[in-house]
Specification:
Largest sheet: none
Number of helices: 4
Shape: globular
Distance between the termini: 64 Å
Number of strands: 0
CATH architecture of one domain: Up-down Bundle
Amino acid sequence: MSGVKRPATQKPASAQSQSQSGTVPASEPEAVTASEIRTKLDLARQFIDMGDPESARHMLDEVLEEGDPGQKQEAKRLIDSLP
């Protein structure tokens, strides 16, 4: 070790340069997990229960883009039930 200590809030130089430049190295988009899609379906149901069909529709549209066939079917069913 060099004996030089950084304050706990200081990022390593490589992270600082990335955040300052506003660019992040190119990488594959992160895959959406089945758990995340289930959470979106649950949120959509909560929005429906709260009387917020617009927010529910937004969540369900994401499920239609990212979900597996069963999740997409459930999203379509919920969309069809919206006012």
